[in-house]
């Protein structure tokens, strides 16, 4: 159990004994300043206010019932009614030793949930853009964190593989194939899409063929279906290359694209009509939502079927939500999507709840992300204004990483540097995404993300290799020396212990709020504390007892760092 939870329980029971029975939040937090102790209780003022009692009196009363004899050295009442808790070093060190076992960090069991994480979701026959890169990286980190906490996690890659453009795309694919130039042009998906669009606009015969193909696709014509599948395969195998290079855990098995829900759409529209949730409006089928107003202040109309019979992105997402609840039995669904799609999500959630497709208990969450910008503060594009190819972005990151490592460590062999550069190149892009608050826009800048100083992947990976070299000098690795005993002898060791103790709270916060940057800041702080420890605390020349205690601390930090990096989807290196 984390220290926060232990103290929370103790404080809660003392508050009960002080006569307060109804629900409250004692708000136990790690203190921000040493003079406030190691943990503080912030909730007493709020509770006192609600009960119209003097907060300092309540604090005094709670303190008399608070049993922290083994845990705390002292507890002080501060300010209007805070409690500052100063932990005992012996308790803290044995707590840490009980947390870290073998080479993992123990987590307190939680109720196991089925959690669907909707992320990446590129569109077929289009290049994945930097926006997709962001949801891919953030979504994959959340998947790893939720997995680590023991949940049943379902990765859902809701790819855009359906819709009227497929008629023109299939017609264009046919032209290309008959020209025997074959797949060559298909390596450039954006070009392929643009050419198809151009032909559709300019060539009447082509446009008619495209329309015919759309209806043949809907009617299940075998040849057209197989062309459609080919487009999906080509696009998704390019995307898979990207996933692999970035160590993203998505595979072809996780594809549950828009087309997967096609067969449900007519039923959904009929059902919404029969429940009087949808109405016919000028030939289209529309749901008017009271809770969303349009510009004129009237209820906003959400189209679920167009006049020509076509279904929409919204219709598919309603069916998809129903499926995730009924069939996948989701307790929680995380939509890792661009912030600009928030209204779309609010609408499909509202409609699905009205229609009882989903229970109120299911937690529906938009894990919004802001935009990726270039150095000029505008949406990230190439100099000529085109979408940036993600694979070439990774190439560039790797080659920059190669130069940096070679400068730092010229004695390494070329093969070694190449291998490290591969890892660091991808890790730097990922870490740059993960370490920023996901809701704000962020500037994509290679110099910053590949810097060896600051909160970056190279800095942390390098810090980790330094720890590995300390361990290997003592013939140790990440498997804990259980016979060593950890003793806190000074303040910096205590700070590290407190930080280690917070690992569980941090991981659970990331899982709850979908905020990987919290884990990144944690890792960065831990690594900073560790370097101050290492600079001021000799290890090998100390007495046997202290030497072993410090080596154990090094091992513990190493395990926490490695685990954190793994949760961020970053492989660690043993030397650099
Ligand atoms: N394919 C969409 C896009 O590129 C994202 C889909 C997100 N998931 C969803 N269930 N709508 O914008």
TrEMBL record:
Domain DALR anticodon binding spans what residues?
460-576
**Residue span(s) of domain Arginyl tRNA synthetase N-terminal:** 5-87
- Which of the seven top EC classes does this enzyme belong to? ligase
**Gene Ontology biological-process entries:** arginyl-tRNA aminoacylation
Compartment list = Cytoplasm
Q: What is its main location?
A: cytoplasm
Cellular component terms, GO, for this chain's entry? cytoplasm
Enzymatic reactions: tRNA(Arg) + L-arginine + ATP = L-arginyl-tRNA(Arg) + AMP + diphosphate
Alphabetical list of SMART domains matching this protein: Arg_tRNA_synt_N (SM01016), DALR_1 (SM00836)
Q: Name one Pfam family in it.
A: Arg_tRNA_synt_N
Where's the motif 'HIGH' region? 122-132
* Superkingdom: Bacteria
In its UniProt record, a GO molecular function of this protein is:
arginine-tRNA ligase activity
Q: What is its EC number?
A: 6.1.1.19
UniProtKB keywords: Aminoacyl-tRNA synthetase, ATP-binding, Cytoplasm, Ligase, Nucleotide-binding, Protein biosynthesis
Give the NCBIfam families listed for this entry. Answer: argS
Hey, which family's this protein in?
A: Belongs to the class-I aminoacyl-tRNA synthetase family.
PANTHER family reported in the protein's UniProt record: ARGININE--TRNA LIGASE, CYTOPLASMIC, ARGINYL-TRNA SYNTHETASE
Its subunit composition reads: Monomer.
Q: What is this protein called?
A: Arginine--tRNA ligase
């Amino acid at each position: 159990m984390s220290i926060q939870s232990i103290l929370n329980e103790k404080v809660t029971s003392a508050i009960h004994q002080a006569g307060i029975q109804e629900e409250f939040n004692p708000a136990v937090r790690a203190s921000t300043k040493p003079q406030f102790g190691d943990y503080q209780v912030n909730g007493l003022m709020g509770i006192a206010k609600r009960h119209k009692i003097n907060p300092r009196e309540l604090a005094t009363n709670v303190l008399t019932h608070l049993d922290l004899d083994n845990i705390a050295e002292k507890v002080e009442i501060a300010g209007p009614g805070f409690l500052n808790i100063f932990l005992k070093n012996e308790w803290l060190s044995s707590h840490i030793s009980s947390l870290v076992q073998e080479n993992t960090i123990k987590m307190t069991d939680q109720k196991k949930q089925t959690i669907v994480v909707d992320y990446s979701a590129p569109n077929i026959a289009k290049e994945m853009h930097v926006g997709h890169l962001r949801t891919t990286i953030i979504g994959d980190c959340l998947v790893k964190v939720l997995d680590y906490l023991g949940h049943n996690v379902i990765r859902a890659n809701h790819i855009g593989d359906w819709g009227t453009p497929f008629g023109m795309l299939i017609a264009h694919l046919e032209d290309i194939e008959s020209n025997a130039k074959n797949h060559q042009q298909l390596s450039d998906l954006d070009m392929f899409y643009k050419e198809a669009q151009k032909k559709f606009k300019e060539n009447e015969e082509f446009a008619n063929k495209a329309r015919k193909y759309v209806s043949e696709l809907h009617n299940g014509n075998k040849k057209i279906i197989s062309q459609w599948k080919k487009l999906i395969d080509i696009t998704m195998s390019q995307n898979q290359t990207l996933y692999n290079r970035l160590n993203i855990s998505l595979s072809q098995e996780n594809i549950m694209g828009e087309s997967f829900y096609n067969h449900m759409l007519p039923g959904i529209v009929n059902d919404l009509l029969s429940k009087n949730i949808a109405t016919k409006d000028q030939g289209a089928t529309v749901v008017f939502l009271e809770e969303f107003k349009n510009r004129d202040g009237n209820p906003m109309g959400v189209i679920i079927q167009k006049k020509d019979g076509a279904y929409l992105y919204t219709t598919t997402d309603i069916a998809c939500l129903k499926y995730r609840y009924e069939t996948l039995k989701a307790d929680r669904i995380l939509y890792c999507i661009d912030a600009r799609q928030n209204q779309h999500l609010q609408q499909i959630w509202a409609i699905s709840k009205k229609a009882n497709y989903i229970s109120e208990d299911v937690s529906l969450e938009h894990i919004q992300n802001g935009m990726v910008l270039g150095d000029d503060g505008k949406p990230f594009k190439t100099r000529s204004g085109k979408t940036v190819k993600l694979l070439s972005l990774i190439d560039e990151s790797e080659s920059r990483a190669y130069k940096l490592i070679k400068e730092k460590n010229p004695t390494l062999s070329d093969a070694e540097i190449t291998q490290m550069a591969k890892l660091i190149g991808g890790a730097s892009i990922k870490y740059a995404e993960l370490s920023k608050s996901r809701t704000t826009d962020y500037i994509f800048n290679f110099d910053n993300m590949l810097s060896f100083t600051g909160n970056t992947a190279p800095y942390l990976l390098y810090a980790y290799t330094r720890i590995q070299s300390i361990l290997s000098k003592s013939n140790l690795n990440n498997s804990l020396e259980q016979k060593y005993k950890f003793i806190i002898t000074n303040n910096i060791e205590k700070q590290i212990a407190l930080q280690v103790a917070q690992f569980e709270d941090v991981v659970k916060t990331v899982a709850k709020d979908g905020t990987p940057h919290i884990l990144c800041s944690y890792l960065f702080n831990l690594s900073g504390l560790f370097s101050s420890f290492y600079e001021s605390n000799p290890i090998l020349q100390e007495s046997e007892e202290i030497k072993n205690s410090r080596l154990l601390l090094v091992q513990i930090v190493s395990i926490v760092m490695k685990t954190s990096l793994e949760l961020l989807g970053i492989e660690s290196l043993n030397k650099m």
